[in-house]
């Protein structure tokens, strides 16, 4: 049965890639910068996004967020407190978001994409499947928490190899967790040479200026293309 499974997987990915390419063109025409956040569960994606949405909103940029989760809408409710448009995508057991899910929920929201500057997609917490599915994003960011261990990139290279940047989260806990920063950087660069690496703390605000700067710089560079 293995060949059949592989054939089905290839078919699913091909269908997803075609739809993702269509979404990417739609986003480009709307001049919308789309950021896909990928990581395992518990890395602090929602906390980082919550602070990011507030920061960008204060700067005058129009943002929105699509939030993926298996069943609950807890994260969406939390992010909605920022005052920006937020939509929950419940995957009902599927361990990743797919381009079709993004397209369907954007249609249902009725958002005017041309009126937005940045759209964030908080993917389902998963270290494997999320790396395989293109969502039409212009920037893919992999998160690594200091509580996960420095060798996570070696164990799940696909997630970090497919990313444009890596953000080490909860850096305020680095010392009590005995986080080896040098080892983490070495593992990240071993699987993704040249990857941009940032350190952040959603609790203290450390590194947030660099993180927001990365988003804005990437958005500006994309507009020049």
Structure description:
The chain has 225 residues and is an alpha/beta fold. The chain has one domain (2-224): 3-Layer(aba) Sandwich (Rossmann fold), CATH 3.40.50. The chain contains 8 helices and 7 strands, in the order H-E-H-E-H-E-H-E-E-H-H-E-H-E-H. The chain has helices spanning 2-29, 45-58, 74-80, 99-109, 152-155, 157-161, 181-191, 208-224, and strands at residues 33-38, 63-69, 86-90, 118-122, 139-145, 165-169, 196-199. A 7-stranded parallel β-sheet has the order 3-2-4-1-5-6-7, sandwiched between helices. Residues 1-8 have low confidence and may be disordered.
Strand order of the largest sheet: 3-2-4-1-5-6-7
Give a count of the beta strands, DSSP E runs of length 2 or more: 7
Largest sheet, strands/sense/barrel: 7 strands, parallel
Tell me the quaternary state: single chain
List the secondary-structure elements in sequence, H or E. HEHEHEHEEHHEHEH
* Average pLDDT score: 91
Instruction: State the shape.
Output: globular
Secondary structure: helix percent: 40-55%
CATH topology: Rossmann fold
Distance between the termini: 45 Å
